[in-house]
Specification:
With 363 residues, the protein is α/β, with parallel strands linked by helices. It has one domain: TIM Barrel (Alpha-Beta Barrel), CATH 3.20.20.100. 36% of the residues lie in helices and 14% in strands. The chain contains eleven helices and ten strands. The strands form two sheets. The chain has an eight-stranded parallel barrel with strand order 3-4-5-6-7-8-9-10, surrounded by six helices. The protein has a two-stranded antiparallel ribbon with strand order 1-2. Strand 8, helix 6 and strand 9 form a beta-alpha-beta unit. Helix 2 crosses helix 3 and helix 7 crosses helix 8. The longest helix has 17 residues. The protein is globular. The two termini are 18 Å apart. About 2% of the residues have low confidence.
Length: 363
Amino acid sequence: MTLDQYYLLGRSGLRVSRIALGTMNFGTGGFHAAYGKTENEVRPIFRKYLDAGGNFIDTADFYTAGESETILGRLIAEAKVRDRVVLTTKYTNSVDPGDPNAGGNGRKHLIRALEASLRRLGTDHVDLFLLHTWDRVTPVEEVMRTFDDLVRAGKIRYAGLSDVPAWYAARAQSFAEANALTPVVNLQLPYSLVERTIETEHVPMGRHLGLGVTAWSPLAGGFLTGKYRPTGETPSGEGRLSDPGSAGKSWTDRDWALLKPLEKVADELGVTMAQVAINWVATQPGVAAAIVGASSADQLGKSMAALDFELSPDLRALLDEASAVPPESVYRMFTPEYQNWVISPGVKVGDKPAGYAPGVRNW
């Protein structure tokens, strides 16, 4: 169980672990207080991640009302690893409900939020700074010019986007390229065996335009651990299934049916269902890292061990088929079957042969 392999994040030279440490539960305040942990409780989790070689840490100013950043800053200073870690934080959420400019994606709030995050984190820069959620009104040009200004000022090293439409991310990257501005290298999105809709546009867009996807909620809020029943209770009768990012999602018959092949794969490999689910996400095309949180160091250790095995083509195909989302509307026309019928009946056409651009490794 080590995270000693690092890959480039998107089209950049930034090297990150394939498992990122999510710190949404670092702290006991604000919206996330129900499952938050104290500094003493999360210190072993943080140290476990570092000891395994992990270097990619994710937080946001909104997490536990800023406590996550404060605690994380202290833990990083305590361990003396500021230069080693790739520190990521995000902005968008309101810090003052009575002030219309204290939330959203605009330049005024972007700069204000970053300065506040830097104070809480106890550092003069963050390695990766993300727009947290699209606010639907701020011009993308304003966001990208502000990101560029902050990179030039040395306050952020790289920029990224989280939870935005694919067209918005494409517009942001194209605007940056056309105007020689700082590009975005990261796209943070929900992705799991039960939430694959980003494959329709976000993932191919990211692969073409140089945005590495980091996947949040790879276990679908705990659903893919297999410990829940259709009633919403665990086998022991404790707890309820919840996903803070699901916006009231109701689990369908298709979702519950997915647990059977997931369990079959886990049993065949001698690992847990959660480990299979994390492995599947982290090794999907276009995905740079899976973001995992933990309530204990032991739980984090099990999650990181998800990269200690490989899914065979047959087992991956079983999971892919069980979790597949049928294309809808115009997207039905972009399937291999439809394209073959339209463009090349009886002829095999592809973009590049297998092995055309093999990956480069320095080990």
